[in-house]
Amino acid sequence: MKLLLIFCCLLPLLAGAQPRIGYEVHYAPHLSTEGLRVQVQVRTPRAEDSTYFHFANEVWGEPDLLRCLGGFAGEGAGYRFRVVPDSNRVVVYHPRTRVVRFSYRVRQDAAEYTRDQVNRPRVTDAYFHVLGESLFMVPDFIVSSPVEPRLTATIRWVGFPPGYVLHNTFASQVTEQTFRGRLWTEFYRSLYVGGDYRLHQFRYQNRPVYVALRGEWHHYDEPGFLLSLQQALTAQRDFWQDAGPTRYTVFMSPTVTTTDTTWRGQSIRGEGLYQGFKLQSTNNPFNSWDLLRYMFNHEMLHDWIGGQIRGAHGELTNWFTEGFTDYYAYKNRLRSGDLTLEAWVKAFNEDVIQQLYKNPERNQPNYLIKDNYWKSRAFGKLPYRRGALFAFWLDNQILKRSGYTRSLDDLMRELRQACLLPGQSFTDERFLALAQTYLHEDISYEFQKYILHGTDIPWTTPELAEGFTMDTTQPIPVLKAAGPASALRERYLNTKGSAKPVARQ
Ligand SMILES: [Zn+2]
Questions:
Q1: What phi and psi, each to the nearest 5 degrees, are found at residue 313?
Q2: What are the boundaries of the signal sequence (predicted)?
């Protein structure tokens, strides 16, 4: 009896552990007007006459997303729908039942988007580009769980013409796929594309890496783009000694395409996804493929810095999450051969040192970065450059004091291993304790001064690795490299110390 009782108590828990949702995404010949029709079917815990569904009205800074939703239709009579944007919710009234089945349409809410509207659903006759969170509604009884919910979702792609490209972060070119995993960090951190995308594939240690891209780009060499992407990915996975996820996708799409020279800039945005990342860029005669290579090096590094080494304190640790990411975007481009030592020195001077010293908020304390990160561009960029320069300072300290047998690279790999353990994350304290094991000295004072307080680093040549000097005679310091480039490159990259890549367990 006791056993039976326990079993009865456990049953609802077990049944609720992995809820299932069925989706069908339907093609229409005129997607720009009809939208993608999504049919959802879910079994609720109890028979009710209404069910709440989650649909975020704001995703990654993109507001009013419920405007992209419409065309609600229940399976039979008796269905009614109420959209509540403030609660990120659609209320579905239905006959008293446990099986709720209805459909809705996801459309663009403007004929053309601006270059900054990168996260709105794009659904046109030629292609679609929709975040998972803006494609699939999930019932509130799953979403509202205090711990991150897990779910099973089957997705069927219905009626798409033969040859129509269908690709997403979980599957490629299939008409039926099943997802099992976490809601927020996996199912909703995803991207679905289709239509005139061009799909390419290469492998790293037998794991597929997809490149899904579209658009006719100015000054563009597709094989060259794919090659430098492969070069970056190989250098980074080798660096972390990590074979990467079972599949990975880099998405690349144009935002606003112009053929004239009215706007001389390039606006490129990158965002990390589960098992990949996306880039979206303006496309005009001023396209810079150097900027693009920097972007994919930076975005890819977030798989580790920010992804596996997760900061516990949000923007307060952006000096690390963005700054050290930026530092390694440059250092790994030197490592992969994408930049020569001369080009690396030039880029580090122009993009990091000069940008920091020209920033009007350069000496503001770290806590103000948190307050103003999203409000001010100068504050938003500050942790990138301050952190990158501090990383260079620390890297030099470790190289020098270890007699060029260890570098910041070793510290980063050790940090990753520590943060991969359950419940572990990045904190200033963990970082400082680890740095102490490399330097045999506590750098809390320097950390407080240069990172938290925002004081300029007083560069002295004896502190730098042999071959580097910092010219401080001008208001903006200038990094210089002396002696044979190959010897300095080898010393700085600490090529002898690095181990062979190994597959992830
Ligand atoms: Zn970043």
A1: -125, 40
A2: 1-17
